[in-house]
Amino acid sequence: MANEEDDPIIQEIDVFLARSLLEKLYLFQYPIRPASMTYDDVTHLSAKIKPKQQKVELEMAIDTLNPNYCRSKGEQIALNVDGTCTDETSTYSSKLMDKQTFCSSQAASNVSRYAAAIYKKGELHLTPLHGILQLRPSFTYLDKADAKHREREAANEGGDSSQDEAEDDVKQITVRFSRPETEQARQRRVQSYEFLQKRQAEEHWVHLHYYGLKDSRSEHERQYLFSQGHGLAENTELIKSPSEYLMMLMPPSVEEENDKPMAPSNVLSMAQLRTLPLADQIKILMKNVKVMPFANLLSLLGSGTDATAVLRCVQQVALLVQGNWVVKSDVLYPKDTSSPHSGVPAEVLCRGRDFVMWKFTQDRWVVRKEVAAVTKLCPEDVKDFLEHMSVARINKGWEFMLPYDEDFVKKHPDIVQRQQMLWMGIQAKLEKVYNLLKEHLTPKKQEAQSAHPLLVSGEQRVNMAKAKVKQNYGQLEKEFQKQKAEMKSNDTSAKTDVANVRIKEEPVSVEEPMDTSAHEALNNGLVNGLHTAQGSMDPVNGHLPGGCIDRVAQELKAFVSSTFKKQFVLTLSELKRLFNLHLASLPPGHTLFSGISDKMLQDMVLDTGCKQILVPFPPQTAASPDELKVYALWEAGDTYDQHRQVLLEIFSKNYRVRRNVIQNQLSQECGEDLNKQEVDRVLKVSFCPLW
């Protein structure tokens, strides 16, 4: 109340609604004009409109006598567009850019809350707007200039052609018959951008006549902005309650469906999805995702959704395969539809896809050729079935894309039993249709449903090898005792001259042991391959009995040589990783398990003819010290030794080099003029990771 007293009403104005120009009044928004140019100075040469699209084109004259107009620029633009000749088709007949075209675009999709107002004698008259259009300059004359330029170039090139070229050549024509268009293909074509553009281009322009601001016709039309009758009987829209009047002034911002662009069929809005019934939500989700665990389905439906209701609905549109829900075939292929690849009816497609789903209930792997041989469908249809629920693995077949969901199977045994009964019925039906043999009915592995996908990574292989070594600990112990007995019987001098035994020492502060000797599971409580429970007289720290040192050196040298013959350039970290993988592949008790330090490995690399490349890496690099140590095989005995040495010399001066520098350096040093392809081959053969 206090605010109302501080802000008193000064004047009350009557508001009238004018209907004469209803659905005919547009608001044009022009670009900003120079201060010296007013709307009275503008001369409209022509105007045209496409009513359905609400698209307008206006052609306005430019004041060439204005001091702000650059005459030389106008002449140059006219010359580029029309050339030297002037005829009826010329854009600028005066050889001067004296006009400009403006094209419109819709500024707002919903203009129901906008109106044009005019105030006169204490009365405010409102006329609703039918559209708001923004006019922007059109530069189609530049396209015309480019077309003229291309025509002139084509004429110059074809001027010297002989008369023989003018004769029509006999060409072979290939006649093709298009397939009947399906309903889905027609919908995709109708929703495509090209189809919409074509429809817009087909609408004809309606030419308009422009009347100036002070023209008598304009004055007459302007009178329609006033309400023709001031009686309340003709303005019943204004006899409303305050709440209804406010609702009319500010309606809820709900966009009409026609104004919204039609989204593709495979795109879902979660906000719109959750407005549908639960059964429809689950059907749409399963139709788009095709394979989904029950936990993921619940998370997509939002918090608070009843799991029991979801279970009841999902069984109507999906089947249980390996604990996961797979959409039913009749949902993807409704009745009276056909295959987009072969035209096979939906009933045949559903049977073929049901066979693939049933095969995945028996095993995690399915062979595509077997499915095609049983179903007699084209390869494209079979591939679609498999891509819905599986992933292709090289040299193995198609594996079910999700792991076996043990949690769901344990929590819902009644659902699992019901689904098994359904699959038994589907199996009986498939046996009759496809005459399935016994080999088709028997799964390859009975434990396939409870097994997880056998995808073994490199790290898992190392762990498996370590576990294998640990299991064979007893065998290692026996071999060690046998070696110890042989050492005591054959090398008696070693017992009497214990004081002269040299213990190999590694500089701990400079070189740390490799990871292969740091893992307890890999070495099984051994230090460099020997048991730590023996007395101090036993050989430890890498001093192996008899000829073990020579055998370790030979094995290590063989590994380093074979590795650098495959990959000519390696960092120390990559070499250690490859050595770990090599150790994991060796049998238990191998001599290389005696413990190999970083220094031993680096010395062996240098002994095999490799060199360390001192690459000047930047100081701010985030690489580890082992990644900064680069070793390369200097001579491999092939034809690229000289090229490889030149490359290594280049990278010893800079860690980043341009291709042209490498090409020039190779040409100078090797005396060959190498092209780009040959340089790429040298880099590929050299396998230089610094490139």
List the helices and strands and how they pair.
Layout: H1 2-6, E1 14-17, E2 26-29, E3 43-50, E4 55-61, H2 71-82, E5 99-106, E6 115-120, E7 123-128, E8 131-137, H3 140-157, H4 183-190, H5 193-202, E9 206-208, H6 216-222, H7 242-249, H8 270-273, H9 278-289, E10 291-292, H10 294-301, H11 307-317, E11 318-321, E12 324-327, H12 329-332, H13 346-362, E13 365-366, H14 368-375, H15 379-389, E14 390-393, E15 397-400, H16 406-411, H17 413-434, H18 438-441, H19 458-471, H20 473-490, H21 493-496, H22 520-523, E16 526-527, E17 530-531, H23 548-566, E18 569-571, H24 572-584, H25 598-607, E19 610-613, H26 625-628, E20 630-633, H27 641-651, H28 659-670, H29 676-686
Parallel strand pairs: 1-7, 2-8
Antiparallel strand pairs: 3-4, 3-9, 4-5, 5-8, 6-7, 10-12, 11-12, 13-15, 14-15, 16-17, 18-20, 19-20
Helix pairs in contact: 9-11, 13-15, 13-17, 19-24, 23-25, 27-28
Description of the molecule:
It is a single chain. The chain has 691 residues and is of the alpha+beta class. Among the domains are: 119 residues; 165 residues, no CATH class; 141 residues, no CATH class. 43% of the residues lie in helices and 13% in strands. The chain is built from 29 helices and 20 strands. A 6-stranded mixed β-sheet has the order 2-8-5-4-3-9, with no helix packed on it. α23 crosses α25. The longest helix has 22 residues. The two termini are 79 Å apart. About 12% of the residues have low confidence. This is RPC5 polymerase. It comes from Helopsaltes ochotensis. InterPro entries: RNA_pol_III_Rpc5, RPC5_C. One of its GO terms (biological process) is tRNA transcription by RNA polymerase III.
